[in-house]
Specification:
Number of domains: 2
Strand order of the largest sheet: 6-7-8-4-9-10
Number of helices: 8
Number of strands: 10
CATH superfamily of the largest domain: P-loop containing nucleotide triphosphate hydrolases
Strand content: 25-35%
CATH topology of the largest domain: Rossmann fold
Structural class: alpha/beta
Length: 246
């Protein structure tokens, strides 16, 4: 059984020498998300998450909504193990893969084939698992002989195809996503969408942050609305999405 449990989780970011920052910038920061607290003349604390509690279990398909700066990315990074809560506790049970940054682990000077191994290792695959998947990943990317030349020589589209092929080759119990991944020309995009659907269907817990109402309605059975680092609303998609989108 997979489980995610957050209890009174807060994440704080200290900003030092804040007196050098203009009042305008501080006001803009307050207006666009999080909470700001001045501790001293030279120290300001930005609270990305503020006393958040939630539990996800097998079968949950969670959609995260909120304006830019509402805390969605901070929450995704806590769930992915990138951030440790400053206060409270987080429990994550189950094999978890994050697709927040699919270029994580990519070395521009390494070949495409070497980067497949690097990215796979970053996702927790052992050498035997990588060896069993490398041909499938290579074929899905469709890059052919380009897999043996440095990644930095690729076009942007080619880079995205390789990163996508490697990042979506696993079948985790918990999947963390920031928007839906889809890239490339029409042929590759169609295959990419099919792979994403298969990947989402195979996971026990999905957490998807998105600005697309249609995407959230299609893939989620529960929506959490974040505002200034706190949960404003948590419930059924119809109810929460109607309140958020108006």
């Amino acid at each position: 059984m997979s489980l995610i449990h957050l209890q009174n989780v807060s994440v704080e970011f200290p900003i030092y020498n804040s007196t050098s920052r203009s009042l305008k910038n501080r006001v803009l920061s307050i207006a666009t998300g999080g909470k700001i607290e001045r501790r001293t003349d030279r120290l300001v604390i930005v609270r990305g998450l503020d006393d958040v509690s939630m539990t996800f279990k097998d079968g949950d398909r969670i959609g995260l909504i909120g304006h830019n700066g509402s805390g969605k990315t901070t929450l995704l990074r806590v769930l992915s193990g990138i951030y440790t809560p400053t206060h409270g506790c987080s429990v994550i049970e189950g094999d978890c893969v994050s697709l927040i940054n699919i270029n994580l682990g990519i070395d521009p000077d390494a070949t495409g084939r070497e980067n497949i191994r690097l990215r796979s290792a970053m996702m927790g695959l052992n050498p035997a698992e990588i060896a069993s998947k490398i041909d499938l990943i290579s074929d899905f990317s469709g890059l052919g002989e380009f897999l043996d030349v440095p990644f930095r020589t690729y076009s942007t589209g080619m880079q995205l195809r390789l990163a996508f092929a490697a990042s979506t080759s696993v079948r985790p119990e918990i999947l963390i996503m920031d928007e839906w991944l889809s890239t490339g020309d029409e042929d590759f995009k169609e295959r990419a969408n099919k792979r994403m659907v298969d990947l989402v269907d195979s996971t026990k817990i999905l957490v998807l942050a998105s600005h697309s109402r249609e995407l959230l309605e299609k893939n989620c059975n529960r929506i959490i609305w974040l505002e200034h680092g706190r949960v404003r609303m948590d419930g059924a998609p119809g109810e929460v999405l109607s309140a958020y989108f108006g």
